[in-house]
Specification:
Oligomer: single chain
Number of helices: 10
Largest sheet: 8 strands, mixed
Distance between the termini: 23 Å
CATH class: Alpha Beta
Shape: globular
CATH architecture: 3-Layer(aba) Sandwich
Helix content: 25-40%
Length: about 270
């Protein structure tokens, strides 16, 4: 931390700050609390990159909603209304009607209309490649980025078949590094619960997937200048939308209760310009 403060004091006060948001289902609501706390410290975000829930939060904030506005909208949405069962398909549910919800929230459906540049991460399941979306239509890439394998049918877009970006990259720092962003704030809302008893095939599969994602994410976390990864979020299930407000506060307090990180944000947040 001392070296970081030294760098900031010596010429990086006008640097661009990039925010990288992980996937994690309902846990991604935590990102909104983190963003609210950062904004209160005067931090100006110049670019956002996200996967799955992180991509959705990133799109809403980039569109111009405040964190509190997004939370309020989430609390009013009946998500089951937008899901349909898939019969004999490569997933339990279809996301077709989710597009209607996105159009209500993001009517411009365009990366170019966003107030903050955004990168959305998805996995091309056929080619086995990560894809970063930064221009053109916005909503289909968002649907692709949050298409949890096995739960939702893959999303067909631009003649490719996509699933959740977390399969290959749950903390997409690479697009922001390539853009020359000097300062990265990483927010990871998907840590594994290593204390959860292994009692069924489901828990074995869940733990294995979480560990695989965590292993890849850890390398990227090391490259972030500031990281918010509160262990408290572990107690929430990835489908626990009903506890949205509590998850939001978990993210908010993870910033406000980090004095060494707040020192940097307090001293230099108001000086940072795009």
């Amino acid at each position: 931390m001392d070296s970081l403060i030294y760098e900031l004091k010596n010429g990086l006060k006008s640097m661009k700050i990039g925010l990288v948001l992980s996937g994690g289902g309902a846990r991604g609501i935590m990102h909104l609390g983190v963003i609210k706390a950062l904004q209160e410290r005067g931090v100006v975000i110049s670019d956002i990159a996200g996967t799955s829930a992180g991509a959705i939060v990133g799109a809403m904030i980039s569109h111009g909603y405040t964190p509190d506005e997004v939370l309020s909208k989430l609390l009013k949405i009946n998500f089951l209304k937008y899901l349909r069962p898939s019969f004999n398909g490569p997933g339990l549910l279809r996301m077709d009607k989710v597009e209607e919800l996105y159009l209500e929230l993001l009517p411009h459906d365009s990366f170019e209309s966003l107030k903050i540049p955004l990168t959305v991460t998805a996995t091309d399941i056929e080619a086995g490649e990560i894809v970063y979306f930064q221009s053109g239509p916005l909503i289909r890439p968002l649907m692709a980025s949050s298409c949890l394998p096995g739960i939702f049918e893959p999303i067909r877009y631009n003649k490719k078949l996509f699933v959740d970006g977390a399969v290959l990259n749950n903390l997409p720092i690479e697009p922001l590094v390539q853009k020359g962003i000097e300062f990265l704030i990483g927010v990871n809302c998907n840590p594994p619960r290593l204390d959860k008893p292994i009692r069924s095939m489901r828990t074995v599969i869940e733990r294995s997937l979480l560990l695989a994602v965590r292993n890849k994410t850890q390398e990227r976390i090391q490259q972030c200048h500031l990281v918010f990864e509160p262990k408290e979020v572990e107690k929430y299930d990835i489908f626990d939308v009903r506890k949205a407000r509590d998850i939001f506060l978990t993210g908010y307090h993870s910033v406000m209760k980090s004095p060494e990180k707040l020192q940097v944000l307090e001293n230099y947040g108001n000086l940072i310009k795009r």
